[in-house]
């Protein structure tokens, strides 16, 4: 058992730091680009008179940073090897270590910087789930058309699972897709319904829409994924939802008699939820890493401040009221970091085993490790907000101001206790394993006797 990161990973992080210091930070400090990151960040990023959308200048700066990262060979690291990715057998371990490193860094950490601005899911090391879904489920034509375009930023798709009336209970979705014959005579589908919190809709070229094609509400079977061009007649943005952290690009989208050809289907008909599983667990463990890193950033900044701040003639850090809460948070962060890395290693091991046997890894990961990923995810997101809140308290009035990033960190990471599966859903998943209603297959477990638990597991 070795708790050190692999030497090649440590070397990669060193090269990444050098690149950020040489290329990204100078760009951030140029032409008053710091306005997007200092106390002016929210107003500089937001078009207050245009539905609260991101400003073009802000998004252009992010594109410049991604271009620099791509040219330097960092941006495509997690992508499939044939599209410029590293193709590492330790993909989850690497990405967790990278995300933690970026979020915890004392110079550009906290998820509030041009190297790694998590409000826009922006990072110099890319995280583009649609590429993974297309790689696993797309037809050769879809892969050829969309993956290179996605890397270039020319194909941008929303992810349409959540609806106005359905969030965690996604299998009860109201959106339907019925088989029809298009005017051209070719087979197709007509989509009706709605999707909410459609991130990136203001600049999307397509919508990835999950719709019920058969079966009953509540059944995971009978749901199909469709790649719908944004300009298809019947696709309408009803509103952009203003959020705790601005700007917003989270739209409510209506679909009325939207017709698409059968070639718009992504993956197997009636088994679209499997597509979501291709990245759900990877996203959750990576998000846990970012949240844990942001928590560490807040803790370290608070310790530094308490040591140099003098009150009543002595360092603020000499007070147990300051020490003890930070000790608790630091202990939790370190234990969580190790759990995240261990879980990431186990995910890589399961992936390798499945590839050797020709099986889909995400199904085995859900069965064997879903509860551990849930532990990491809900606890990390909670820890990030608790650490940011404690940092605000320790810094006092200046901590409450926007001249420090803690209020921004709190507002941003607070959302992750709801998105990517709410913490209640994650806790419910862990409970299902803990009390034997669900097993990893490695040990016996009592069969679920409560109808409620059975229904709940279908949703998880």
From TrEMBL:
GO terms for biological process: butyrate catabolic process; fatty acid beta-oxidation using acyl-CoA dehydrogenase. Its cofactor is FAD. The keyword Flavoprotein applies. CDD domains: ACAD. It holds the Pfam family Acyl-CoA_dh_1. The keyword Flavoprotein applies. One of its GO terms (molecular function) is acyl-CoA dehydrogenase activity. Residues 34-154 form the Acyl-CoA dehydrogenase/oxidase N-terminal domain. Residues 159-258 form the Acyl-CoA oxidase/dehydrogenase middle domain. It comes from the Eukaryota. Residues 271-432 form the Acyl-CoA dehydrogenase/oxidase C-terminal domain. Transmembrane segments: none annotated. Keywords: FAD, Flavoprotein, Oxidoreductase. Gene3D superfamilies: Acyl-CoA dehydrogenase/oxidase, N-terminal domain, Butyryl-CoA Dehydrogenase, subunit A, domain 2, Butyryl-CoA Dehydrogenase, subunit A, domain 3. Belongs to the acyl-CoA dehydrogenase family. This is Acyl-CoA dehydrogenase. It comes from Rhinocladiella mackenziei CBS 650.93.
């Amino acid at each position: 058992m070795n708790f050190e990161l692999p030497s090649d990973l440590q070397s990669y992080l060193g090269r990444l730091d050098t690149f950020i210091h040489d290329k990204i930070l100078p760009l951030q400090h140029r032409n008053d680009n710091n306005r997007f990151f200092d106390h002016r960040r929210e107003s500089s990023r937001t078009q207050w008179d245009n539905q609260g959308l991101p400003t073009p200048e802000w998004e252009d700066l992010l594109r410049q940073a991604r271009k620099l990262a791509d040219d330097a060979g960092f941006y495509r690291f997690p992508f499939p090897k044939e599209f410029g990715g590293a193709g590492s057998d330790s993909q989850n371990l690497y990405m967790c270590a990278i995300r933690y490193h970026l979020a915890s860094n004392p110079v550009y950490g906290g998820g509030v910087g041009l190297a790694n601005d998590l409000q826009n899911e922006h990072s110099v090391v890319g995280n583009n789930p649609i590429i993974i879904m297309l790689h696993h489920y797309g037809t050769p034509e879809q892969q050829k058309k969309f993956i290179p375009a996605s890397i270039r930023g020319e194909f941008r798709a929303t992810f349409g699972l959540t609806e106005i009336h359905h969030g965690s209970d996604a299998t009860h979705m109201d959106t339907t897709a019925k088989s029809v014959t298009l005017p051209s005579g070719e087979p197709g589908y007509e989509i009706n319904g709605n999707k909410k919190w459609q991130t990136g809709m203001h600049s999307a070229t397509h919508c990835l829409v999950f719709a019920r094609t058969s079966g009953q509400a509540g059944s995971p079977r009978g749901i199909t994924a469709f790649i719908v061009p944004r300009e298809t007649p019947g696709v309408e943005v009803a509103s952009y939802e203003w959020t705790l952290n601005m700007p917003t690009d989270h739209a409510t989208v209506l679909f009325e008699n939207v017709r698409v050809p059968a070639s718009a289907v992504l993956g197997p008909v009636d088994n679209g939820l499997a597509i979501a599983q291709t990245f759900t667990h990877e996203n959750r463990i990576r998000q846990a890493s970012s949240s844990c890193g942001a928590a560490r950033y807040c803790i370290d900044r608070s310790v530094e401040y308490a040591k140099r701040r003098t009150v009543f003639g002595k360092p603020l850090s000499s007070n147990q009221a300051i020490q003890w809460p930070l000790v608790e948070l630091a202990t939790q962060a370190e234990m969580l970091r190790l759990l995240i890395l261990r879980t990431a290693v186990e995910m890589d091991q399961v992936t390798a085993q499945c590839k050797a046997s020709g099986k889909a890894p995400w199904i085995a990961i859900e069965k064997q490790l879903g509860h551990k990923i849930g532990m990491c995810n809900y606890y990390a997101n909670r820890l990030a907000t608790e650490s940011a809140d404690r940092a605000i308290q320790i810094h006092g009035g200046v901590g409450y101001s926007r001249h420090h990033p803690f209020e921004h960190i709190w507002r941003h990471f607070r959302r992750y206790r709801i998105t990517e599966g709410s913490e209640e859903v994650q806790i419910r998943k862990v409970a299902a394993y803990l009390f034997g209603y669900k097993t990893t297959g490695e040990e016996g477990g009592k069969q679920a006797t409560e109808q409620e638990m059975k229904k709940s597991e279908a949703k998880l």
